[in-house]
Amino acid sequence: MRRFLLLLLTVLSAASLSGQGKIRELLSAKAPEGCVEQSWEVDGVKRTALVRVPSGVTGPLALVFGWHGHGGRSTHSASRWGYAELDKTSILVFPQGLPTVSPLVDKEGRMPGWQTSVTSEGGRDLRLFDVMLADLKKKHAVDERRIYSMGHSNGAAFSYLLWQARPEVLAAIGSVAGSLRGDGKPTTPLPVIHVAGKKDPLVKFAWQQATFAAVRRFNGCAEEGQPWAKEGVLDATIYPSGKGAPLVTAIHEGGHEYAKGSTELIIRFFKENPKAAK
After folding, report:
1. H or E segment at 42?
2. Do 54 and 135 contact (CB within 8 A), yes or no?
């Protein structure tokens, strides 16, 4: 019994240290060079985001929103995802979430995140998106055909929600370890790239496979995929669409992490999928 208790204490201690390490990593992350915090008042609440406007780039610019996962920080997504280093020509926006209830990991709603349906949290984050977009378009030459949204976990689910709520604005979305809610019903085909881990303990791989099937149905994609790319730990397959809205699934053997190679593939996919000219 004593040996069992010692083993249990060791495991719990290791888990605690691991959790503390992740918290320290989140808090110690610093925004990459060129990222500046901007703020907006939305419904009387100060909202912030780290924004990187590329220097020395002329002409209309692509605009990419990157939403952190539940419990995340904008500084962490801006620095750890490596987007600013790999994409030098787009305006990048990394918003900061507010305390949000998550049935999976935060039932008391103590950690920052994003609304999970069109009506949840009073629609506050959809309005944040609208306010940020309007302000950035006023200040910069934004290419209306190249406005994108991507994110990790809860942030990926919010990108799917933006497809449902703002399909006329977005050119494509990217999801890392996220899913489309069961009640989500997009009405307009949109290109999607989705990164998923087969051993994801939080957003089950089966749920993400159900999302793949739903996206193929919404977008009129082929049932059989074709090899598209390999990057980092990812093996990506493309499902062509006669509606100009392909699905790319990038699968790895890991879990819920932001997998190596995700940013490279998302950048490539976004560059290949601007909104069709009218």
Report:
1. strand 35-42
2. no
Report the alpha-carbon angle 251-255-256, nearest 5.
100
Q: How far is it, in rounded angstroms, from Cα 81 to Cα 227? A: 24
As assigned by CATH, the class of the 32-272 domain is: alpha beta
> Which tokens is 249 given?
């699934």
DSSP string of 95-121? E--EE--BTTTBTT--SEE--SSSSGG
Residue with tokens 């009218």: 278
- All structural domains of the chain with their residue ranges: 32-272
Q: Is 240 helix (H, G, I), strand (E, B) or coil?
A: coil
Predicted structure pTM score: 0.89
What is the SS3 assignment for 65? strand
Up-side HSE of residue 147: CA atoms within 13 Å toward CB? Answer: 20
For the CA atoms of 79, 82, 83, 88, the dihedral, rounded to the nearest 10 degrees, stands at 100
d(CA 3, CA 187) in angstroms, rounded, equals 58
CA–CA separation, 190 vs 158, rounded Å? 15
Per-residue model confidence as pLDDT tens digits over 9-23: 333 333 333 344 544
Nearest Cα residue to 257 out of 201, 180, 208: 201
- Write the CB contacts of 142 (distance below 8 Å, at least 6 apart in sequence): 60, 61, 63, 91, 136
Phi, psi for residue 128 in degrees, rounded to 5: -60, -45
Vertex 49, ends 45 and 54: CA angle to 5°? Answer: 150
Among the ranges given (29-33, 113-117, 272-276), the one the predictor scored with the smallest mean pLDDT: 29-33
CB 162 within 8 A of CB 129: yes
DSSP-derived secondary structure for 190-212: --EEEEEETT-SSS-HHHHHHHH
Helix, strand, or coil here: 6? Answer: helix
- Report the DSSP pairing between strands 91-95 and 45-52: antiparallel
